[in-house]
């Protein structure tokens, strides 16, 4: 076994030697893409030394969290703040979210970065006993906070609305009210139940064609208040179908972490822009690919993104909602944070076998910034799993 090789656990219970490729893509400082709008949904960095109950509270390392946002801005991305990638609704409560938004918007203003912030209803208990008026008030509170801080709104899907709505007309009522009040165009967020089981039946029913029709009806009534819609259903065909029905000027932001290269590239009838959690993990490759696309170099675009797709599909493997573990793991391997700890202890949500495959796929995609550091940190993780 060579000095740089690793013995990695495999699905059959054995160990296999892996010799890293050891080649990395450069982090190239650049401006935003000119041909696509691209947001990376950014993760948060937990404070591993804080004296608190990690099962009920969230304590963040603010400097490391903001440093990662500066890194994404340096690669030309906008930051989608306080989204599910930041463990919104999975450990990060509304109090911490407010502080995150406040700090991130101020940081964006200071360094000229783009940022849009999630506004939802997660401080409201998602119970059938909640009323539509309760949901509206919760949305109004969070939207008011985001706009009061100077941020743009990403109007997140609501667990509370999914729990208490009786049908499509209830969704239309709530969205009509909120969109009539916002001062700037928002990005709507349709998150499928593979990302959050509590959102099953969103827009009023299990039939996705009917759900899409309800969402489109809302957008058409308020097109001047909708910058775009982020669709995270992991269904490329449905996204393209909906994209072609959007009113003029309303963007489709792909949230499809299984099919993003083809959806962003598009066809002669249009393309999707991007608001993706995987862009947090594959930022150098995604940035270089988008700038190649700006120049019309489709071959280079595909060359850069093709090896990231197996990595993305693995990170977002079922249960999809635990993809955050893989995103944070890569940030740790790449030296963006000094530890592999997460809000709510979710570093334990994926197995050592799963994490080992992330290492291999990231190495093959040239996404390990410092291969020597990544090998060292992978060995530490393996040692904790009992691999000597």
Could you walk me through the main structural features you see in this protein, from its secondary elements to its overall organization?
The protein is α/β, with parallel strands linked by helices. The chain has a domain at 34-299: Alpha-Beta Barrel (TIM Barrel). The chain has 15 helices and 10 strands. The strands form 2 sheets. It has an 8-stranded parallel β-barrel with strand order 3-4-5-6-7-8-9-10, surrounded by 4 helices. Helix 1 (62-74) packs across helix 2. It is globular. The mean pLDDT is 96.
Secondary structure: helix percent: 40-55%
CATH superfamily of the domain at 34-299, by name, is Aldolase class I
Cα distance, first to last residue?
13 Å
Global outline: globular
Main sheet characteristics: 8 strands, parallel, barrel
Known CATH architecture of the domain at 34-299: Alpha-Beta Barrel
Secondary structure tally: strands: 10
Radius of gyration, Cα only, in angstroms? Answer: 20 Å
Helical stretch count? Answer: 15
CATH class division of the domain at 34-299: Alpha Beta
Strand content: 5-15%
Average pLDDT, rounded to a whole number, is 96
SSE order: EEEHEHEHEHHEHEHEHEHHHHHHH
